[in-house]
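[job 4471] stage=fold_predict status=RUNNING
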Amino acid sequence: MPMKMALNLCHDATVIRGDMNLYSKYSRLVIGIIAGKAPLYEKASVDEHYLDITGIDRFWGALK
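[job 4471] inference complete, writing structure tokens
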């Protein structure tokens, strides 16, 4: 939701400025973990990733 819309809906909201450098750092850490475990993935944004986990139960025992 755009900030302007959020503030229109909640006039007394407290807005905290983000830290894009910190977000990017942790995003790289997360993608490193994902890349090591998922055979197919896509990074959509700094905090959004899509993973194809088809058949992963054979490797990690998810059905148990």
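[job 4471] summary: Residues 20-37 form the longest helix (18 residues).
[job 4471] exit 0
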